Amino acid sequence: MQRSISYDTFTFLLTEILPIIILICFILGLIGFIGNIFTFLQPNLRWNNCCIYMLCSSIVDIIHLTINILPSYLRDKYSFFGLPWNSSFLPQLSINLLLLSIIDGYACTCALTSWAHRLNQLKMVPRLILMMICISGIFSIYSPILGNDQPASCGYGEQNIYGILNIFFNGILQPIVILIFVLLTYRNIRQSRQRVGGMVKSGVNRFRNQFIVMIITQVLITAIFSLQWMIVQTYVLFNLRRVKTLDDLLLMAILFALSNKIYPFNNVKLFYFSILTSKSYRQTFVKGLKKIFSRQWVH
Hints:
Blueprint: H1 2-40, H2 49-73, H3 75-78, H4 84-109, H5 124-139, H6 142-146, H7 159-195, H8 204-239, H9 246-262, H10 269-277, H11 279-298
């Protein structure tokens, strides 16, 4: 009796709950993308290095949500499966572009004579973006080699190798690099405040610090999403062959499915956490909306 209840729960989750989560994820992602495009292209933000990186990350997010996440919602109707390389490359590129924003924030806090401060130059933006595209492509090359176009629950041909590489690149390496630059940025900010006697500078520095706080929040939330995914993936990978009962297998499948469907919210959060954590972002967004409504009112 317990087995049938567990299986019914799994079926209900798979057919009713997960598709709703996917649809909500895509809708929120689309709204957030429109909000990011509208805000980051405002005159006072469009030439800011950090905003350029986050705008590019948002563009990659909506591409990923459109060609990988939305088709999984329509899979039963159209029998369409995404490409493993796209599923690995695009999320990794999005996080790497967000990583560039925290690197830019770190460079802002470095001394003017530091080599890192040169990364703030506008001419470095396309070079760094191209470098991240290449790095993401190289780190994702294992996916089409070891993966296939079957659903995640069916696994991959070389499941253990694929799982270990996936966990390492997406669940360990990226969060570690993110946390390193967050700590370096925090250290530089503290040292800078100590040098000026604890006084808070106005103008450019205040604007910069608001965006640094926003970026740090974004990358920390990214690390949290990645770590929860890594923990579940690791648990499933190393315990799948030890399963002895159907209940254990179904529980593992439920955890695996939920983790994979929650992880794409990594590609949704940018707009919403920017609104919550950055006064400059909120003011720019509201000011842009007022301009649009005032023009419509005049016409």
